[in-house]
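Appendix B, Record 12. Input sequence as logged:
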Amino acid sequence: MHLAILSAVALLLREADVERLVDMGTVMEAVEASLVALGTGKAENQPRRRVFPPGGVLNVMFASWPEIGLTGLKSYTVASGGARFLVILYDLEGAPQALIEADRLGAFRTGAATGVAARGLSPAGPKTVALIGTGWQARTQAQALRLALDIAELRVFGRDPEKRSRFAEEFGGVPAPSAEAAVRDADVVVTMTTSAEPVLECAWVKPGAVVIGAGSNYPHRAELPADLVNSARAVVVDQRETARLESGDLLQAGYDVDRALELGAVLAGKAALPPGDGPVVAESHGLAIWDIAAGRTVLEAARREGLGEEIKL
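Logged structural output:
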């Protein structure tokens, strides 16, 4: 059997285009909608898969969201030359719609997911927020948290004092002298680091706080301590299937991932946080459905503004 190969015109969007077009509020709305679609069975997401060529790693993840007429994937490489990200969007007939350089886009969708989780898992009202990490990805975490929450105080901790102070000043926060000083009495705690070891202690965490581990997606790395995970009144994950492969925080704590709630189900009202004053631990590893959601926002903006390069495939 021979299948017809049909040509299509796709839009190539480079990092400069994404930088001009991407908007955190819009991405947050799209990511939240994608999670609800996943939680109600209206979207499909496959976890990240990795292969390890000499000196690097190739990552591929993919998803389908029929309601918005898109399916697609993200692939990225990490090697000595750095990291390179590409999102490809197809329509439901299989025609490519966009090829998007996705370093900036990935940071936005990751930050957006944290904002959505923080807003969806914590009660309304002013909050003290602790952010551990001051790197590239931490910037969009702070940006999304500012949009998602009524923040009374944003405490920032990172190992480099000068960088910590600059970061806090940029995002209207307070540089904390230690991770403990940041976390004590905070209502929401977010970790976005490259650490393979826990960056906080369970004893520092306020009863009822929401703790979002966003920095690790490898099973051998854990930003959160085991006793925090195992004392949580609820553990919430992006997707159980992904958490089983990637959640070092849960796997190293010996936590049974089958017990975890999925964020999309909570947002859709199909699952609820149990009562109690224990912490809520949320694990953010990154889903391809977020890349499709975020990619669609910049694709639509590019079409409106006439940006990008049309390529025939």
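The chain has two domains: 9-106+289-312, 121-287.
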